[in-house]
């Protein structure tokens, strides 16, 4: 992609001035005229970096789980309550009363990193004194505020099952009133087939449409059944990589040159125990333990993990920008003398992305179906941590280790270098701004006085917030447009720009 030129910015400025002029024209005398002179010559042009416009994704507002990640089941492994039992199985619900079925959890799963499984004790039967209701008893999952099941589309259902006896389990996608079956199939197996954990996969084609559907697992046969890692995925995901096609096409249409992930505060966590740790998010989806994002207060199964973020960057034709934890959360932090395990985790993460398929972590990537390295050129050491006690000490440990192993990687500091010179080495510095429409408009001139020497800026998070923004407003759009014009004008000291947050699920607006 060739470099952009300043005349584009001048035209935006002209449109802005014209709009403002038209808004107030009715208050002016009709005989008055205004003349705007624009210098659009090549000599006045300011080159803009090829990486100037990109995207920033954070797992906030259920942007990933229940958003661009196409998994329809919420809390698919019954792990959302943590590793102890009884576990919180929400939003799963029980079909049948306590005289016919008992639902509990135990630690009998075959997966070492997520031991919780759901136990279904069926007390009724298909015949005899205690007869099950015709629709059976079992469990139901509504997904993320209802599964959007579409007629004609196919869905892959995967689950693990174990039982003390033979089973006949109905797997159904049902409408909002539960009696409307949009798609259904039966799992029939002998006791010997399911005496140990068995993975079952089904492909269901929807015969109807309902945006408030749910998954039901029911039976009318007495016995004890265990379920674990229950998944429903549409088959038509973006390039077959598990993302919602409709939403990711919107991202692709923006033609981003970079993709920053996975946060944000999501990377830090309120506490380090709940921070995003990349090693917990790779490997087969069934084996990922998931974690509670305690900043935005919801559980994620981490089906959307480090590998998937790298894959999405590649699918969008955008350079990945990986933000990793530097041993600091909102409430606790690791002393610089003890931060080396975090440093090694970052080095391992870079090897996962870029390493030879025969390397320790490159082989893990290759096993996931991507033997070729990803084009990882940028990493950010932490997020909004510059002011914290151990940040600069920790930062230097990361910087020296990464530059020694990967001298070509560009490293981004959390410290703002626009107002004063940085006291540590960096390739780029991060600049975030969330404010009112008028203030963000005035900040278009912020970089006019920034030093022309040293690292350039990465304006990785900007937005109008508060009353000016609402759910989107013309005033906010004008303020942000004015800010962007200022960034383009100062593109000699700004390399990259992205808005935040990218998505919001209207059911969980943070």
From TrEMBL:
Report the family membership: Belongs to the glycosyl hydrolase 51 family.
The superkingdom listed in its UniProt entry is: Eukaryota
Question: Which cellular compartments is it found in?
Answer: Secreted, Extracellular space, Extracellular matrix
Keywords annotated in UniProt:
Extracellular matrix, Glycoprotein, Hydrolase, Secreted, Signal
Start and end of every Alpha-L-arabinofuranosidase C-terminal domain?
A: 469-506
Q: Which InterPro entries match?
A: Alpha-L-AF_C, ASD1_cat, GH, Glycosyl_Hydrolase_51
Q: What is this protein called?
A: non-reducing end alpha-L-arabinofuranosidase
Q: What is its EC number?
A: 3.2.1.55
Q: Which organism is it from?
A: Trema orientale
Molecular function terms in GO for this entry? alpha-L-arabinofuranosidase activity
Give me any GO biological process, just one.
L-arabinose metabolic process
Q: Extract the SUPFAM superfamilies matched here.
A: (Trans)glycosidases (SSF51445)
| Keyword presence, Signal | yes
Catalytic activity reported: Hydrolysis of terminal non-reducing alpha-L-arabinofuranoside residues in alpha-L-arabinosides
Secretion signal: which residues?
1-25
- Annotated Alpha-L-arabinofuranosidase 1 catalytic domain ranges read 251-452
Q: Pfam families from the xrefs?
A: Alpha-L-AF_C, ASD1_dom
């Amino acid at each position: 992609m060739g470099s952009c030129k300043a005349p584009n910015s001048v035209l935006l400025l002209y449109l802005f001035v014209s709009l403002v002029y038209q808004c107030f024209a009715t208050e002016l005398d009709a005989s008055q005229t205004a003349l705007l002179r624009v210098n659009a010559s090549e000599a006045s042009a300011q080159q803009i970096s090829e990486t100037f416009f990109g995207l920033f994704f954070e797992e906030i507002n259920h942007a990933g789980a229940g958003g661009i990640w196409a998994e329809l089941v919420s809390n698919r492994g019954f792990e959302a309550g943590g590793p102890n039992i009884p576990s919180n199985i929400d939003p799963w619900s029980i079909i049948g009363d306590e005289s016919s079925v008992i639902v509990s959890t135990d630690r009998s799963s075959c997966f070492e990193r997520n031991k919780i499984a759901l136990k279904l004790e069926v007390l009724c039967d298909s015949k005899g004194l205690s007869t099950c209701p015709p629709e059976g008893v079992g469990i139901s999952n509504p997904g993320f505020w209802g599964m959007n099941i579409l007629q004609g589309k196919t869905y892959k259902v995967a689950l693990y099952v174990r039982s003390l006896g033979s089973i006949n389990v109905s797997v159904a996608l049902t409408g909002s009133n539960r009696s409307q079956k949009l798609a259904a199939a039966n799992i029939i197996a002998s006791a010997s087939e399911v005496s140990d954990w068995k993975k079952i996969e089904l492909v269901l084609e929807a015969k109807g449409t309902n945006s408030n559907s749910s998954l039901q697992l029911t039976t009318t046969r007495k016995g004890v059944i265990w379920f674990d890692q229950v998944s429903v995925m549409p088959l038509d995901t973006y390039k077959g990589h598990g993302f919602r096609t409709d939403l990711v096409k919107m991202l692709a249409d923006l033609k981003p040159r970079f993709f920053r992930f996975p946060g944000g505060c999501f990377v830090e966590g309120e506490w380090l125990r709940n921070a995003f740790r990349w090693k917990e998010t790779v490997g087969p989806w069934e084996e990922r333990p998931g974690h509670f994002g305690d900043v935005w207060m919801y559980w994620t199964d981490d089906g959307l993990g480090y590998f998937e973020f790298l894959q999405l960057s590649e699918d969008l034709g955008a350079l990945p920008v990986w933000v990793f934890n530097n041993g600091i959360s909102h409430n606790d932090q690791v002393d610089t003398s003890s931060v080396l395990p975090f440093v090694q985790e970052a080095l391992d993460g870079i090897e996962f992305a870029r390493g030879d398929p025969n390397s320790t972590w490159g082989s893990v990537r290759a096993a996931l179906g991507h033997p070729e390295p990803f084009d990882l050129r940028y990493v950010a050491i932490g997020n909004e941590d510059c002011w914290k006690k151990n940040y600069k000490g920790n930062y230097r440990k990361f910087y020296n280790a990464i530059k020694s192993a990967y001298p070509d990687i560009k490293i981004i500091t959390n410290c703002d270098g626009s107002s004063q010179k940085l006291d540590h080495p960096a390739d780029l510095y991060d600049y975030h701004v969330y404010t009112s429409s008028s203030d963000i408009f005035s900040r278009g001139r912020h970089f006019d006085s920034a030093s022309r020497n040293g690292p350039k800026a990465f304006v990785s998070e900007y937005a109008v917030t508060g009353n000016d923004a609402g759910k989107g407003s013309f005033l906010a759009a004008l303020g942000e447009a004015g800010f962007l014009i200022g960034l383009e004008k100062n593109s000699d000291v700004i390399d990259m720009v992205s808005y935040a947050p990218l998505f919001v699920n209207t059911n969980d607006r943070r």
